[in-house]
Amino acid sequence: MLATLEKRIHERFPRYLEALENLIRIPSISFDGFDKNEVIRSAQAVKTLFTNNGFQNVQLLTPPSGRSSVYAELRTKPHNPTILLYAHHDVQPTMREALWESPPFSPEVRNGRLYGRGTADDKAGIILHIAAVTQAVAVFGDKIPNIKFIIEGEEESGSVGLQTLINDNKELLKCDAVIVADNSNFAKGIPSITTSLRGMAAVEVVVKSLKAPLHSGSWSGPIPDPAQALCRMIASLTDAKGQIVIPHFMDGITEPTKEEEDAYDSLGMTEEIFRKDSGMVSTLSLMVDKKDILKSLWRKPSIVVTAMEAGSRTQSGNVLQDSAYARIGIRLAPGMDADVAMLQMIEHLKKHCPLGMDLSLFSEDGANPFTTDISHPYFEMMKEAMTQAYGAPARYIGCGASIPGAQFFRDAFGPIPVLLTGLEDPECNAHGENESLYLKDFEHGILAEALFFGSLHK
User: Fold this and answer.
1) Which CATH class is domain 199-253+300-363?
2) This prediction's pTM
3) Fold of 2-197+369-455
């Protein structure tokens, strides 16, 4: 069956690529401040894809935000298992458009990669699922599982309504396993199943000292600078080596198992590879020992200032600013709780706000970390399908990013297997400028999932 599926998918790959390009042309940015109608237009386009490919019960599921998700299904036989396939059709903002080599919503193929916002994260996941199911049906018929799809419309902005959406449609979405196609391969051509995710939380901070900006020559000296005050607050979160110093912040972290640590070691990550993949400045020092790079990425928390503002870089003058702003993101290690971590950070920032500055703190909805038990047979079956499709041994890896839906599915449906797969790689630059998808892995990923569906009837 491998040769048959491989041939069919290869012959139809241009149409899958075209379908993906059509989705990428829709700027479905799900953050506040962007046109929500584009997310709705993207949902409608996905809905049309399902309808045109013969899927059943196709409908929009709309959370309170109005950014619709799309549901569809394919029924085979009642006694077959039911697999829920997840991806998302919303995307990140474009960042600095001047740095894009081609417009972010005008897909372009260069050197075996498709460039555009949402190529790898995660509109390719949508097409992967649709193509894999249609080809598995063509080859294996009704022996494949019953299939359900949920294509979310607000994952990038925190999946704020997904849990409600799942709970309100629990019977509709009920399943025996979930495949989340929103993760990475360890490298190009190395298929991977992710077994752990870091959680996510964020706090917005505003410090204010004046009613309005003032002439710096006439007023600075007696009056504190809010930008410097904010910098001191941020610096208090970590020590000189970047280690988090918030009291009790690291309590409860779950260490990786020996099997997981052995899997990390087997991947052959080196400082040289990491520096090349990340694009680090050559003089920059790592904040962890080189042997702990993957463990730090996947199983330790981190704090990152994702935005700062005090005045305007393009309109800078000799001004004592009235206020300063920062958004501080937290990545949470398995075992941590997003709400607890946010409160700990907020309390720490309050204690370290200097000189009686007026302080405002705003917390965002967080996502808890996620780990999965790979003892279920589906994991080895998926690993074998990936190995066949890619022609390279599949690996178990961790991920430093967050997918709130993974835990939501477990909360709703119990300890069912949640298989985290995807098509990103270290070169894809997801969330940054010039995001891209490696097309060879796109084709191999479709084949792997189709083979997995075919293997479940044995």
Assistant:
1) alpha beta
2) 0.90
3) Aminopeptidase (3.40.630)
